[in-house]
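chain below, 157 aa
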Amino acid sequence: MTKEIIINKALSCGKASILYVKSTKTDTARTIKMEIPTMTILNEWKKKQQKTYLILGYNTLQTNQLVFSNVKNSYLQPTKMQDWLKRILKKYNLPEIKTHGFRHTHCSLLFEADAKIKEVQDCLGHTDVKTTLNIYAHVTKEVKEGAIQKFESYLNN
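prediction:
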């Protein structure tokens, strides 16, 4: 099983909410390393998608198959995902978060797991490390406490 995802296109919303594919912000493909549990879930989803869409008459074995698509095997409106997220948050009484907020959370958790700044920059696909530091490096309470503990330990040695 490959443990990476390649991002080589972006979806944008034009006039009258018409969706179209465009190049990424940096005009380059980005390869993101993934952990095994996430890749296992994505592979299980792919198998389920193949069975479901075959019944609907769609061949999902194409190399350009979307990971998540609507019932016509086409692009999902971004508002659809927002609606799903709102329902899940409400059902489980969770604090509000926007879809892009998961990217911020992922970044913060990488730092909390002691990932180095260059590793996080690579995971997020930033060409400039300043972007990672200025926008995404939300230092969590645990990391702040850990920094103080490291400093205190250093002073006591």
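The chain has two domains: 1-76, 100-157. Residues 126 and 150 are 28 Å apart (CA to CA).
thats it, cya
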